[in-house]
């Protein structure tokens, strides 16, 4: 499988106030910030996405809001999708972080993502 990732800015929140992700993960940076990473449920919106920092998250509904003000709806169970892993790794590398040190938050801990 070949993964092509375009590093581009997301549309303005007013143009895309909500994003639905599948095959999703949540990862934690050394700074303590958490981010959503996943594949767009609606592929017409793009392939994959890493969010800005999560500011609120409801584990029961799997809906979160990020620092940009965008709302993320996580569909299905969190997964270890190779494409999502690739998106996370490339994003971390592009931001000067070591992907070997930053993996997804364990799905058991999703309800405790923000303490």
Structure description:
The chain is mainly β. It has one domain. The chain is 11% helix and 30% strand. The chain is built from one helix and six strands. Strands 3-2-1-6-5-4 form a six-stranded mixed beta sheet, covered by helices on one side. The longest helix has 13 residues, at 82-94. Keywords: Plasmid.
Main attributes?
115 residues; plasmid; six-stranded mixed sheet; mainly beta
Précis, in short:
Keywords: Plasmid. This protein is mainly beta. It has one helix spanning 82-94, and strands at residues 18-28, 34-40, 48-50, 54-58, 63-66, 71-74.
- What is the general shape? globular
User: What's the structural domain tally?
Assistant: 1
Gyration radius (Cα, Å) is: 13 Å
Order of strands across the main sheet: 3-2-1-6-5-4
**Portion in beta strands:** 25-35%
Q: How far is it from the N-terminal to the C-terminal residue, by CA?
A: 37 Å
Largest sheet: 6 strands, mixed
Write the layout of secondary structure elements.
Blueprint: E1 18-28, E2 34-40, E3 48-50, E4 54-58, E5 63-66, E6 71-74, H1 82-94
Parallel strand pairs: 1-6
Antiparallel strand pairs: 1-2, 2-3, 4-5, 5-6
Keywords: Plasmid
């Amino acid at each position: 499988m070949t993964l092509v990732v375009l590093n581009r800015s997301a549309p303005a929140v007013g143009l895309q106030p909500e994003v639905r992700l599948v095959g999703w993960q949540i990862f934690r940076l050394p700074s303590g910030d958490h981010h959503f990473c996943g594949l767009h449920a609606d592929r017409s919106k793009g392939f994959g996405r890493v969010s800005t920092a999560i500011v609120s998250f409801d584990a029961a509904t799997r809906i979160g809001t990020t620092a940009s003000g965008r709302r993320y709806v996580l569909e299905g169970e969190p997964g270890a999708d190779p494409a999502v892993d690739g998106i996370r790794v490339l994003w971390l590398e592009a931001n000067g972080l070591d992907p070997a040190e930053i993996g997804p938050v364990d799905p058991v801990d999703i309800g405790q993502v923000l303490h």
